[in-house]
């Protein structure tokens, strides 16, 4: 009986340490090597559009709020105003949860049998920027906002700032 109790205590301690370890690991983002130019089926971009698809690693044991805050912080660190100006017809970033199929080495099938669009159920967030006349139209959390092109700088593109301008609470 003592052996069973000792084994169960050891297993419990190991499980708790593994869970604690998962919670302490920071979220990582990898750009999936998807070349939208190779799509022969549909939704291929024009030279004035860009599509980036990221897979999120270490999202297990993270609350939805923590995960969304991590994505926003990554996006705010890596987005550049000149990239948005370079792709005026649309600059889109999608973030997906890692799964057995979606990982940092995911590639679309050339015949269209497996495309990133088949995995939208695993998408966490989508951000999109589009230049219309003298404004930048921003789509995030399913809502749209406008930033004057003249005022567009790194700080103006911050998702945290934009969500306050649009009047939404990220992650809710």
Please tell me about this protein's structure.
With 172 residues, the chain is of the alpha+beta class. Helices cover 30% and strands 25% of the residues. It contains 4 helices and 6 strands, in the order H-E-E-H-H-E-E-E-E-H. It has a 6-stranded mixed β-sheet. A hairpin with a 2-residue loop joins strand 4 and strand 5. The N and C termini lie far apart (49 Å). The model has no long low-confidence stretch (mean pLDDT 75).
* Total beta strands: 6
Classify the beta-strand content into a percent band: 25-35%
Count of runs of 4 or more consecutive helical residues: 4
Main sheet: strand order: 1-2-3-4-5-6
* Biggest beta sheet summary: 6 strands, mixed
Mean pLDDT: 75
List its salient traits.
single chain, 172 residues, alpha+beta, 4 helices, 30% helix, 25% strand, elongated
List the helices and strands and how they pair.
Elements: H1 2-24, E1 28-31, E2 49-57, H2 64-78, H3 81-86, E3 90-97, E4 123-132, E5 135-140, E6 143-148, H4 159-166
Short description, anyone?
This protein is of the alpha+beta class and 172 residues long.
